[in-house]
Amino acid sequence: MAEDKDVIKQQRTLLLGLLAGCCFGLQAQSLQLRDDHPETYTVRKGDTLWDISGHFLRSPWLWPRLWQANPQVANPHLIYPGDVLTLIWVDGQPRLVREGRAQSGVVRLSPRVRAEAAVATIPLASIASFTDGYRILEPSLLRSAPYILGDQQGRVVMVQGDRIYVRGQLEPGRLYGVYRPMESLTDKFSYAELGQKAALVGSVTALQREGGDVTRVQVSSLKQEMRQGDKVLPLASGDAIAAFYYPRPGPTLDNAYIIAMGREGSTAGRHGVVFINKGAAQGVSAGDLYPVLKPGPGIYDYDDSALNQLTYYESASRYLRNTGPAERLPAAEVARLMVFRVYDEVSAALVLDGQDLVRTHYPLGTLHDAGLRP
């Protein structure tokens, strides 16, 4: 009996398997369960396959092997809130099944007709919320774009249904997006201008061209107040989000870091959006995973201090700071993010899980086995 327990313990410590039937192109990796994994789990509203797998696996991106999904892995709609999942073993491999559905041989989680939405791979709602309101644009494009001049009443702020004027030649009958320029994204290593963030404030429909380069338009929709000077651009046809994302470790990047937050502020938590300073030009693709590293604090050791005491850089005197740079303690992984939108030199990424907030200028590492809690 003791020997059987030892065998089971070894199996749960290190499990090897092949990626047969998996379309992700990942190399075979050991399927490792978390030391504190549960035996059963009840699916909650808002859960994703990533979240649930994170309760069981040290590497949640291997979730297809845990679910024993059918060959058409592109459809992850397998489970629903309220379902009870049980961890079982099939040919020495762990599998998650609905309670009471364990069978010999191949175990599957079959779809069921349910009124509520099935569990998605990752939180698509967070991505949709972002992509519906923000774009990364070439700074030169924003500078030369048509812009709102005003209306007949001389108002600074426009409301839905207003007929207003735009500086620029627009195509009558066409719907345009109205964008407000935000911060410019400049790489701190190369000093290159990578792009400019812009917020979608609403849309207008071009009515007719007036004299010169002025076009009369009507405000069709508003996300926030529309002002004089807001830029008018064609709505992006390629901004629809993918139906499914399959996270996997991304390629190694040099000097990669969080360059900006998706929204206002300097921090982001779970399911927040951030921008990184790498894009298609550096081989980044949608679905790539990266750990976020929190830099260690600076510290002056005994030999560096005239007071013969340990001192953090933040509390060090100006004299001590002038003696030289502080020793930097090691960085620690605090979160994982997944790229979901790739531009030429910049990418937008979603914070999937983490132990702490992430901030601008936090560097990115190479993902091996972050093992963070969802």
- One letter per element, helices H and strands E, the order comes to HEHHEEHEHEEEEEEEEEEEEEEEHEEEE
Radius of gyration from the CA trace? 26 Å
Structural class: mainly beta
How widely separated are the two ends?
35 Å
Q: Give the % helix.
A: 10-25%
Count of alpha/pi helices = 6
E-strand count:
23
- Largest sheet report: 7 strands, antiparallel
Q: Which regions have little confidence, pLDDT < 50, spanning 5+ residues?
A: 1-28, 69-77, 100-113, 370-374
Describe this structure in words.
There is one protein chain. Mean pLDDT is about 80; it is low at about 1-30, about 70-75, about 100-115 and about 370-374. About 10% of the residues lie in helices and about 35% in strands. It is built from six helices and 23 strands. It is mainly beta and about 375 residues long. The strands form six sheets. Strands 4, 5, 7, 8, 9, 10 and 12 form a seven-stranded antiparallel β-sheet that branches. It folds into three domains: about 1-120, no CATH class; about 135-235, Thrombin, subunit H; about 250-295 and about 330-360, Thrombin, subunit H, CATH 2.40.10. InterPro entries: Bact_Kbp, LysM, LysM_dom_sf. This is Peptidoglycan-binding protein. Pfam families: LysM.
